[in-house]
Structures are given as C-alpha cells and as structure tokens.
Amino acid sequence: MPQIRYTVQIATPVERVWAFVEHLPNWAPLMIGYQKVVEVNDRQSIWTLKGDMGMLAREVDLQADITLWEPLKRVEFTLTGLTEKLSGSGSFTLEPATGDDAREAETPAEKSPAPTAPAPRRTRRRLREAFARFQARMMRRMMKRAEGADEAVRAAAATIASAPADSSGAGSLLTFELHVQPGGPMAPMLEVLMAPMLEPAVSDLTKGIRAALEAG
Fold first, then answer.
1. For residue range 169-209, what is the model confidence (pLDDT) as tens digits?
2. Is the pLDDT of residue 157 over 60?
3. What's the CA gap between 152 and 145, in Å, rounded?
4. Any residues with CB less than 8 A from the CB of 17 and at least 6 apart, and which?
5. CA-based angle 55:143:48, to the nearest 5?
6. Closest Cα to residue 56, out of 185, 192, 179, 178?
7. How many CB atoms lie within 10 A of CB 158?
8. What residues contact 112, with CB distance under 8 A and at least 6 apart?
9. Strand 44-50 to strand 34-41: parallel, antiparallel, or no bridges (unpaired)?
10. For 81-112, b where at least 16 C-beta lie within 10 A, e where not — what string?
11. Closest among 118, 117, 144, 131 to 57, alpha carbons compared
12. Would you give the DSSP letter of residue 162?
C-alpha cells in the first residue's frame, strides 16, 4: 500500500492553522489534480481528482469520511473509490512548534517501498516519460506559488485574516499522512504508477497550506 507522511513547520499559531484547515474550501484547490469537492455533510465529502498516469489518467470520484475529529489537534479520514476500486486513509496532525523544532523547517516525505511488479520495456519507457511530464508540471506549480501568482493560494490566505492571533508568536507543525490501496486485478501495476504520484501530492498540499497561511 503506497503511503506518504510529510511534516512542515508553519510560522503561524495552531489556532490560525486550525481555522484554515477545518474548512475544506480553503485548501481543497491546493490538492494535485483537484477538479471539485462536494461537502455532503460535516463528516463526508466527495472529491473529484484527475491525474495523468494509470487509472488516474481520467477523473476519479473519491468519498472521504471523517473518522476522528479532535479540534486543534488531529483529523483522521478514510477514502473509498466511487468510480474506481480504491481505498485508503489519511490524517492531518497539528501541534505547537517548540524551539527544538526550528532545526528543520520540513520533514521529507516518508514512504513505503514501492512494489516491484515486472513491466515490459515499452511500459517502463511510458512510465518514465509520464513521470517526467508530471514532475515538470509540479515544478511549474511550485514556482508559481513561490512568485505569489497562484490565485487559489492568495484567495485561501484571505480566509484566515479574521482568525484570532496568538500573542505568544509560536509556530505550528502540520503533518499530513496518506495511505492509498488500489484494488482489482491491476492493483500491483497501479501501485507502481501511484507511488511516485503520492509524494508530490502530499508535499505540495502541505507546502501550499503553509504558503497560504504565511502569506496572510
């Protein structure tokens, strides 16, 4: 099962980070492949994502169900594929940053070893080419954000302007963890395809949230 864990330090108090991430519309557009999200209720939402490799070469609908909600601390959720055989889970964990945390602004993604399913030479070449295009596209997105040109980030940052400030000036540590398990007879090959996609998806989302908050 491909799984990624990524942590960033944000120069914003826990209360303001929570005020941002507890509302899906604030950060949903920062997700790679985002098309739309529909909030069914306060515990369930339907996501439409689109990618360029494997089964994600088309739009995929996922149902996200919140299983744990600890204000200012942690949110856990499960994922169920509605248009593809797919399941998974994930979490957002939030905690105050301490002086010791300043040594590292971010923690590289931790991921499970990718499955080693055999693939024909032509398939391997296609995967390399597709992944190269994917990396180039992610680099362009990150550069846009660095230049402050991403409209989604700027719009999202405006939503936290009214959140209460913390006079302590302490920062926060935000950790996003994601586990995804494709199903069906093509599952081993799909895991190979998805593994390199998850790391930039998780890190880009977490960094995007940080950029939106610190821009505010």
1. 569 999 999 988 878 776 666 666 666 677 888 899 999 99
2. no
3. 9
4. 10, 94, 172, 174, 209, 213
5. 30
6. 192
7. 12
8. 1, 2, 3
9. antiparallel
10. beebebebbbbbbbbbbeeebeeeebbebebe
11. 131
12. T
**pLDDT (tens digit per residue) in 26-84:** 999 998 889 999 999 999 999 998 865 444 567 889 999 999 999 999 999 999 999 88
Q: Which pLDDT does position 161 carry in this prediction?
A: 40
**Token pair recorded at residue 168:** 């302590």
- 3-state DSSP call for residue 39? strand
DSSP code, position 30: G
> CA torsion angle for 52, 136, 175, 207 (degrees, to 10)?
-130
Query: Taking a C-beta distance cutoff of 8 angstroms, is the pair 199, 4 a contact?
Result: yes
